[in-house]
Design goal:
- The chain has 9 helices and no strands.
- The protein is mainly alpha-helical.
- The radius of gyration is 17 Å and the shape is globular.
- The chain has one domain: Heme oxygenase-like (Heme Oxygenase, Chain A), CATH 1.20.910.
- It has helices at residues 3-21, 23-30, 35-65, 69-82, 86-100, 110-125, 130-154, 164-187, 190-222.
- The structure holds fe (ii) ion.
Length: 224
């Protein structure tokens, strides 16, 4: 199996399990998530996107230092595209604020903070590994975005416009996903990187699952 198929199958399975076992996804699809919980989720998405953009810049610089022109160009392109997108996440936060009528202090979630640090250490060792993070983020958004937005609007009665950042990404990242199989072939030797990419993907899934669980625990204190 090529690396693209291996990774996408793992993320497909992860998403199915998330809907069955993760309290946040269970709440979204059963119509019980509260706007206050979504607000904490969205606050973290904004923060994590900003961190991701900084990591892209680090990966670009690290690639440049290694004289890797292909990866330098790849990360530079990703950086220039992504740096405009944080504004979408910030706009979502403004919309959810209108619904909750509150501006809570949203601490960056520890699972996401750990993930940022983990990848930055990896970038120092070998910036190619950060590609696995971008792939997880985009592929997961594509497979989950539209369905989650539909449930948020129709089951939870929260306007889907509050997660415009996610649905817009789900749409535009579809095109990135189509390029991934080719990008992997152009940029890395699949067999050399197979284990490292799978490890990084598994790590992303574990941290994202923890992040969503943590959000639902905040709710008990903040909303109750
Ligand atoms: Fe983006």
């Amino acid at each position: 199996m090529d690396l693209y198929s291996d990774i996408t199958q793992r993320i497909d399975t992860f998403y199915k399990e998330l809907k069955q076992n993760n309290p946040l996804f269970i709440a979204i699809f059963s119509g019980t998530i509260k706007p206050e919980q979504l607000q904490f989720f969205l606050g973290n998405i904004t923060h994590n996107m900003a961190q991701g953009i900084e990591s892209l810049a680090m990966a670009k610089n690290a690639s440049q230092q290694r004289g890797d022109t292909k990866f330098t160009e790849y990360y530079a392109n990703r950086f220039h595209e992504e740096c405009h997108h944080v504004a979408w996440a910030e706009a979502d936060e403004e919309k959810i604020k209108e619904i909750t009528q509150s501006t809570p202090d949203i601490e960056p979630d520890s699972a996401l903070v750990d993930m940022t640090h983990w990848f930055r250490e990896k970038i120092k060792e070998d910036p190619a590994i950060f590609m696995a993070y971008s792939f997880f983020a985009e592929y997961f958004t594509v497979i989950s975005g539209e369905e989650s937005a539909h449930a948020i609007e129709n089951k939870c009665q929260i306007p889907a416009s509050c997660i415009n950042n996610i649905t817009t990404h789900a749409e535009i990242d579809k095109h990135h996903i189509e390029d991934w199989r080719e990008d992997i072939k152009q940029l890395i030797d699949e067999e050399t990187y197979r284990d490292a990419f799978i490890q990084a993907t598994e790590y992303c899934m574990q941290q994202y699952d923890s992040f969503c669980r943590n959000i639902m625990e905040i709710e008990i204190e903040a909303v109750a």
